[in-house]
What does this fold into?
Amino acid sequence: MAARFFPLRLVRPLLLAACVGTAPLAHSWELSGTHRVSAVTRDDQVLPLGSVDFTPQADGSTTVKLHMETERFTDHFLSMKEFKCLEGPEVMCHVPYPYRNPGRITPTSFAWLEHQLLFLFKQPRDFGAKLWNGLYFRFERDAEGLVGLPQAIDLNLISAPPDDLTTPPYGVGQSDDVAPGARWISRLIIR
It folds into this structure.
């Protein structure tokens, strides 16, 4: 019987899957259609937040449109402004990005989606909003969707419109890592 040889490009994914103990994915998650947005707490509770519509564009980018399910939130009047908040060991309030923006992402940059999911946190006993207690969830893609880990930001940065409305204001240098478990919401997921 003659030996058969298979092209390495076909064998490599199978070898990788055998080494890590998983089968190759038949379909990878796509930046297309409507997907659920949820918050995951540090004790692994999943809190539905809403959905996001992904619409692929001819140039390779994808437009995003966020739909928050505000009935899941409570109203808080903080620092002369109404916020929609989740209540737990901390109060986590959604801060909609207030300025016109392209609303587009690419397969390697989720910045405008991240800007639509800004939050501030406070202790339940605290009065008012401390805008320097902002959270920015930086997304990375995995096999099931997107996972956003919290970054500490100062929301005062967006108290006035940026000079360039096409460039996301929160980029490298405007955020700091948050220690795992330090915040009640440990990550956001889009599935």
The longest helix spans residues 8-20.
